[in-house]
Write a structure and sequence with these properties.
three-stranded antiparallel β-sheet, Aspartate Aminotransferase, domain 2, alpha/beta, globular, 14 strands, 458 residues, Aspartate Aminotransferase, domain 1, five-stranded mixed β-sheet
Length: 458
């Protein structure tokens, strides 16, 4: 008999969670302005809002917490982290930050100015927010296959080389401070970028004299997909693939709350000392001294350990199998999702789920609210609310994809939890024709509105 797959870890500590009643959830979500970010965590049964900082740390990481060196300058925890980043990524310069958007803030302060354009593959919310805050423009060059959620294409995070070269030809290189590859590409459904595409984008950037940077929050999951979907790399180790990926980039920002399995932390990795020196000034201004960058010593120590664990094949296989399991369960119930499933989340296609609901009434947000009311499951909208308004016209931007993201924390939930989530989605799908109205905005921030927006039921 072939042995069934099992996770490469056992559970040491548990935390109680409470489901709540339907009436309570109706009350709580209304009080939150129908914004799932504003819910108290005690009012959530299964929390799939984000995989950022919500994973379970290992015993080895908790041991590192106890060994952290809290020296303001020259902490040995800093050097442990710095050495780990340099060894894994092969980049000689390193700046710690307290999280990924802080790394973007520091790097973009050094590189981006008003009027610049930054091409990439479906920039995520904080990336685009930091670009547009500086009165620059993010230009999406993702391949068209990414926007057909029912089509199976193994690397939907890839950049379209023709779209990218069109940007390079249209604007002088002085207006293009960098090109960004997000690995994996969150906004297109947690989709990976192939090594072949990374090489081709790097060559094109070199041809036009443009720097290439990674948004590397989920770089290890991307490496797993290269190993399992790109035939040339099936016999190559994850860390060798990682070093190969980063060999084509000039630098990277990382939210370590994802693939490094910690609750806080980020960094900038660089090849160019001139950019490092320039960014160091902003790091000190915004984050802290260069050898802690907004983190405690214990956080840096746990992060260094987490980077090694996060690039272990057995761990990655366990992680991505669970995501695929939820995706398969949803497909079993005929629920439309972005296929194939990505590395950190399952993305439900709200346009196909609620085709009769007008886009102006926020299909993905409506579906997210319904899921919470159905079973206390918190997901997040990756659609019109997140896309925000056009900075010039102030009109809503309606993206090609309107998705409900179910982001799975690392080493937190069991397969029974996934079954529960799928059953909740199935119940909503069975009554989808009864969902005839959505929501309208009654209060929003001028940028990155989705975090604090308030809505009203129509």
């Amino acid at each position: 008999m072939e042995l069934p797959y099992t996770e490469p870890y056992k559970i040491k500590t548990t935390e109680s969670i409470r489901q709540g009643t339907c009436a309570e959830r109706e009350k709580w979500i209304k009080e939150s302005g129908y914004n799932l970010f504003k819910l108290r965590s005690d009012h959530v049964f299964i929390d799939l809002l984000t995989d950022s900082g919500t994973g379970a740390m290992s015993d080895e990481q908790w041991a590192e917490i106890m060994k952290g060196d809290e020296s303001y300058a020259g902490s040995r925890s800093y050097f442990k982290l710095s050495d780990t980043v340099k060894e894994l990524l092969g980049m000689p310069y390193f700046l710690p930050t307290h999280q990924g958007r802080a790394a973007e803030n520091v790097l973009f302060s050094a590189l981006i100015k008003e009027g610049d354009v930054i091409p990439g593959n479906s920039h995520f919310d904080t990336t685009k927010g930091h670009i547009e805050f500086r009165k620059a423009a993010a230009i999406d060059c993702t391949i068209d296959e990414a926007f057909d959620t029912s089509g199976f294409y193994p690397f939907k995070g890839n950049l379209d080389l023709k779209k990218l070269e069109k940007v390079f030809k249209k604007y002088p290189k002085e207006k293009i401070p960098l090109c960004i590859i997000t690995i994996t590409c969150n906004t297109s459904g947690g989709q990976p970028v192939s090594m072949k595409n990374i090489k081709e984008v790097s060559a094109l950037c070199k041809k036009y004299g443009i720097r290439l940077f990674f948004d590397a929050a989920r770089f290890a999951e991307n490496a797993f997909f290269i190993k399992t979907r790109e035939e040339e790399y099936m016999n190559v180790g994850i860390r060798d693939i990682v070093r190969g990926m980063f060999s084509y980039a000039d630098g990277a920002t990382m939210s370590c709350k994802k693939d490094a399995i910690v609750n806080i932390g980020g960094f900038i990795a660089l090849r160019d000392k001139e950019i490092f020196d320039k960014a160091s000034v902003f790091n000190i201004m915004f984050e802290g001294y260069l050898t802690y960058g907004g983190m405690s010593g214990r956080d840096m120590a746990a992060l260094a350990q987490g980077l090694w664990e996060g690039t272990d094949f057995q761990y990655l296989e366990s992680r991505i199998r669970q995501v695929a399991y939820l995706g398969d369960k949803l497909k079993y119930y005929n629920i439309p999702i972005q296929e194939p499933t990505g590395g950190h989340a399952v993305f439900v296609d709200a346009k196909r789920f609620l085709p009769k609901l007008p886009k102006q009434q926020f299909q993905a947000q409506t579906l997210a609210v319904e899921l919470y009311k159905e079973g206390g499951v918190r997901g997040v909208e990756i659609g019109t609310l997140l896309a925000d308004r056009n900075p010039q016209t102030r009109e809503n931007r309606y993206p090609k994809l309107e998705l409900l993201r179910l982001a799975i924390p690392r080493r937190v939930y069991t397969y029974n939890h996934m079954d529960y989530v799928a059953a909740c989605m199935a119940n909503i799908y069975n009554r989808r024709n009864e969902i005839t109205t959505g929501y309208k905005i009654i209060k929003e921030a001028p940028i990155m509105r989705h975090f604090t927006i308030e809505l009203e039921k129509l």
